[in-house]
TrEMBL record:
Native source species: Anaerovibrio slackiae
CC cofactor: Zn(2+)
Name under which the protein is recorded: Succinylglutamate desuccinylase
Keyword Phosphoprotein: no
Domain of life: Bacteria
Keywords: Hydrolase, Metal-binding, Zinc
InterPro entries: AstE_AspA_cat, N-alpha-Ac-DABA_deacetylase
Molecular function GO terms recorded: hydrolase activity, acting on ester bonds; metal ion binding
Signal peptide bounds: none
Domain Succinylglutamate desuccinylase/Aspartoacylase catalytic: 30-212
Length: 307
């Protein structure tokens, strides 16, 4: 059943409508899970998960105990215009939560979204990377909520769980706002901007179904679930370019690297020279790799999880 979360009148007889698909189980009351995506208009990986999950759960309503609410597009104008933020306002929607009833239009929308999700037993906030970087499927968690959220994240079929220090987590995000009011929220990052990676979407869909089984919302899930690596900020190595040019990868995304192994080079198309060789700072999993080849000094090239 499709329901409005918020609907507002816009100029020129247009409307801003944020909607959700509510799948209510036929086995009476139970737990409630919210699956949220589309906060950034250039992050489309969650669109596939929303479609797959809605399709699968529609067939499982007779087995479902509780309800699943799927929010495919928190920023519909951004998605329709392929714009990361809120078109016309130069705002990142994930920097205005928890919003305000008496604030601007977008602050009001943010408040209505938080109010609608509040009280869920679990919220899954799905993001993709930007157009510059490709990410392995991962869940990012604030260290202040790690004790509660890491056990919940362990069944989500991701490659890794990255526990961030509190200083690196912005308090104006949807996840922070929900966790601060007692609604557990997991942030998923996977894939690359403006693309759908079917393999990653299928993995997350299976992970959500497995997590629902652990929560008692579905009968036993039969699929195989990947056990994630758990990392902290201290065991993630960063590779940044010191030179501008064109990045040419030598290592493959998802590959296990040796310390000092060549990850790629920065090339100069004008002179034909190799301006810089980029080496892994530690042995581990290459979980972030630059997708967009043009680099400037300081551009992030890769992240390597020490294992």
């Amino acid at each position: 059943m499709v329901e409005d979360v918020v609907r507002l009148q816009l100029p020129v007889s247009e409307e801003l409508a944020i909607q959700k698909n509510v799948i209510q189980g036929e086995r009476g009351s139970g737990k409630r899970i919210c699956v949220i995506t589309g906060t950034h208009g250039d992050e489309l990986e969650g669109q596939y998960v929303a479609w797959q999950l809605g399709r699968i759960l529609a067939e499982k309503k007779g087995e479902l105990l509780g309800s699943v609410e799927i929010y495919p597009s928190l920023n519909p104008m951004g998605i329709s215009t392929i714009y990361r933020g809120l078109p016309g306002f130069d705002l990142d929607m994930n920097r205005i939560f928890p919003g305000s009833e008496g604030g601007s239009m977008h602050e009001y929308v943010a408040k209505k979204i938080v109010d609608d999700i509040q009280g869920a037993d679990l919220a899954v906030d799905i993001h993709a990377s930007n157009i510059f970087l490709r990410e392995l499927p991962q869940i990012r968690i604030n260290e202040l909520t790690a004790d509660k959220l890491v056990p919940m994240a362990s069944h989500m079929n991701m490659d890794l769980i990255w526990v961030h220090s509190a200083a690196t987590v912005l308090e104006s995000t949807l996840a922070w706002s929900l966790n601060s009011i007692g609604t557990p929220c997991l942030v998923v990052e996977m894939g690359v901007g403006m693309r759908l990676t079917k393999e990653y979407g299928d993995r997350l869909t299976r992970g959500i179904l497995a997590t629902m089984t652990k929560m008692g919302m579905l009968p036993d899930y039969k699929g195989t679930i990947h056990q994630p690596l758990i990392s902290h900020d201290g065991n993630v190595g960063y590779i940044n370019a010191n030179q501008s040019g064109i990045f040419m990868p030598e290592a493959k995304h998802g590959q296990y690297l040796k310390k000092g192994q060549l990850v790629g080079v920065i090339a100069d198309p004008l002179t034909g020279e190799v301006r810089e060789e980029l080496l892994s700072p530690n042995a581990g999993l290459l979980f972030t790799l630059r997708e967009y080849p043009v680099t400037l000094s300081g551009s992030l090239i890769a992240r390597v999880l020490e294992v």
